[in-house]
Amino acid sequence: MSNQQIELQFITHACVLLIAGEVRLLCDPWLSGTAFDDGWRLLAEPSTTIEDCSPTHIWISHEHPDHFSPRDLLKLPAEQRGHITVLYQETKDQKVESFLRAKGFRVQILPTMERVDLSPDVSVCCAPIGSDSWLAFFAYGQTVLNLNDCITGQDILIDDPDNLPSNQVDEIRTMVENPDVLLTQFSYSNWVGNPDDLHLHRLQARTKLNQVRQQIRTLKPRTVLPFASFVHFCHKENAYLNEEANTVHRVVPVIEDEDAQALVLSPGDLWRVGDSHENKEALQRWTQIYRQAADRSLEESAIVSEVDLRDAFSGYQQRVRERNDWAAIERLTHAGGLRPTKIYLWDHGTGFLFDLVNHLAPCSMDADDADICMSSSTLAYLLNYDWGRGTLMVNGRFSADYQGIHRFLAQTQIAYGNNVGLRFPETLPESIIRESPSYVAFFARQALRLNAEMG
């Protein structure tokens, strides 16, 4: 047994630096600015720069901007990028891979569930869960398992961890059992209900803690580092989501109750895997950070004119037309499979009818009549960027009619699928359009059920 140890430095949020000999693997470097259309900020700024981390390798878990941040990656000088290998999961669209190669990075695609050597002493294994992926880092007989914000098991709202299915955790265990360190998300990271539905927010926060319990019970790690939840919902339209989000103080007793060692680090802290650690100082630091975040000014967005919204819709419609069988979309619409959705814009004080095949048109309605409510800048972002629908679901800058939201999801499902390389109807079947399966659709159904039970 080697007496050498992996070193782990916490940078911020989901970014850690794993050091083993000459290998310096930097994970998910989002180190500056906002993410998700001004919806998130870092709770704590890093104490180091990406260049100071001197990475030999960078691992990107998935395309979300709090993990894949081009702004931060491109702060590495061009002459250094060719000496850095970026590790990424296998994907159909290869967008991230193509971008990185074009910017001068070396890219190594990690085959699913296969160990890959980075040096004679260091190897890694990666596999996707949904669009996310996890990474196991092996060195000196030690294992660090980075789950980041992979959702293991089904994403359900439930208070009892014994009823959380563990099928995906079981799959991980076939490759990684009893890791020395488990790195995992501990709070919700998306829309979890409308502002007044605090009971839904609290239930989802408890569900995230129960998922941590489930991971510990199945994988049996010696130590758990809670991370990947150190963000602040920073816009006036989503700041309400901060109120019930789990702090790191809530997850520590959960970890300890499951007989694992809780490891709390603040930005810049360096820890050697296997060493003991006292959390008191880091917890005090996080208490201060949470208080400071609550006092920050919130982001605001400028109003986007109706003319600009219509122009953006024309571009959105044209991209969908070019990438899919437009005649098949028209047939689906005429058959009632794509019913228009009603969108109320807070800053315009009026509604719009969104009909992919026909138009984006003003429509007289109150907010209570809409399927979804948002600001004009949010709608413009959704129309201008292929990933806009996904961004909206994460940043929570909207409120929804729990019964009508499915119409909005169906209307935007084709463009959302196109973003990850799917095409209607060849690889994006009609059943997916009609059902529009997503976390938000699932959550809306659960919200209707729970609210009905509460009367």
**Cα-to-Cα separation, first versus last residue:** 61 Å
Q: What structural class results from the helix and strand content?
A: alpha/beta
CATH class term of the largest domain: Alpha Beta
Strand fraction = 15-25%
Strand count: 21
Cross-sheet strand order for the largest sheet: 7-6-5-3-2-1-16
Tell me the overall shape. globular
Total domain count: 2
* CATH-defined fold name of the largest domain: Metallo-beta-lactamase, Chain A
Cα-atom radius of gyration: 22 Å
Q: In summary, what is this structure?
A:
This protein has helices at residues 70-73, 78-81, 95-102, 167-173, 198-219, 248-257, 280-294, 306-323, 326-334, 376-384, 388-395, 405-418, 430-435, 439-454; strands at 7-12, 15-20, 23-27, 40-42, 57-59, 85-89, 106-110, 116-119, 122-129, 132-139, 142-148, 181-184, 223-226, 231-233, 261-262, 270-272, 341-345, 350-355, 359-363, 372-374, 399-400. It has 455 residues and is α/β, with parallel strands linked by helices.
Task: Report on the architecture of this protein.
The structure is a single chain. The chain has 2 domains: 7-294, Ribonuclease Z/Hydroxyacylglutathione hydrolase-like (Metallo-beta-lactamase, Chain A); 306-454, no CATH class. A 7-stranded mixed beta sheet has the order 7-6-5-3-2-1-16, covered by helices on one side. It has a 7-stranded mixed beta sheet with strand order 8-9-10-11-12-13-15. Strands 19-18-17-20-21 form a 5-stranded mixed beta sheet. The termini are far apart. The chain is globular, with a radius of gyration of 22 Å. By secondary structure, it is an alpha/beta fold. The protein is 33% helix and 21% strand.
